[in-house]
Structures are given as structure tokens and as C-alpha cells.
Amino acid sequence: MNLTTIAKATVHEAEMIPMKACTFKLTKSNNSSDEESLINRKLPKELLLRVFSFLDVISLCRSAQVSKYWHMLALDGINWQRIDLFSFQRDVEGSVVEGIAKRCGGFLKTLSLKGCQCVGDAAMKSFALHCANIEDLNLSGCKRITDRY
Length: 149
Prior knowledge:
The protein contains 7 helices and 3 strands, in the order αααααβαβαβ. By secondary structure, it is mostly helical. The chain has a 3-stranded parallel sheet with strand order 1-2-3, with no helix packed on it. α6 (94-104) packs parallel to α7 (121-130).
């Protein structure tokens, strides 16, 4: 028996099975606040933050869109200690780095801008003002950065 014969037999058998009508009623829960969702009630904030700490930049940004509570967790500074923007090198502009510096400056320890060719001196000036705790900074391939400042 070949695959085509099996597929035809399966379709034929499915046509002979009587189906019951199914109806579903969707109801809105009275407890619709973010804090009332099951995962938020069962897991402590510290554990959720630990889970978020393993997410990459894209996943953190997507998680921040789930709910107000997850937005707060995803944007917590502890999750933004190490940022590697190499995967986005063509898309990263100076304003992105300035935003990261302002939002994450107190927590940021490692930043890789390797290959980010649109990042310039203004972004680095903002970075220098806000990121006093930086321990590792990779600027290789950032062609617009000069030694003017």
C-alpha cells in the first residue's frame, strides 16, 4: 500500500464517521487583571524575573507586549545587563543606543555593537553619560565612531 492509497482510505473513513455538533461559549472572566493570571499567581516575581533573564532582546520585547505586569518584568533593568546587537547590526541606529543607555544605563554591564555601522559619536556621548557600570564594550566595525569627544 502506498501513501496515496493510505491517504484516500483515511479520507474515506473520515467521511463515514458521524460528527456531533459542538458549540463553545466564550466568557470573559471577572478576574481579568494582569496580576490575576495563573502564571502570575503561582510563580513569585523573583522566579519570573529569573526566567526573563534567559531571554534574548527580541523575546524580551515581545514578552513586554503580553500584559502590563510582563511589561514591567521584561523591562526590569536586571534583564538588560548584557546586550548583544550584532544580529541587528544593519538596523541599529544611534537613537536605539541612546534609548538603551537612558533606560538601562544603571544596570548595563556588557554591550556589543559589533558591526553596527550607523552608530555614531552622539550615541556614544549619551552612552558615556548614562552607563557608568559598563565593564565590556565591543565597538568593532562601528565605522561612524570617531575620537572627537
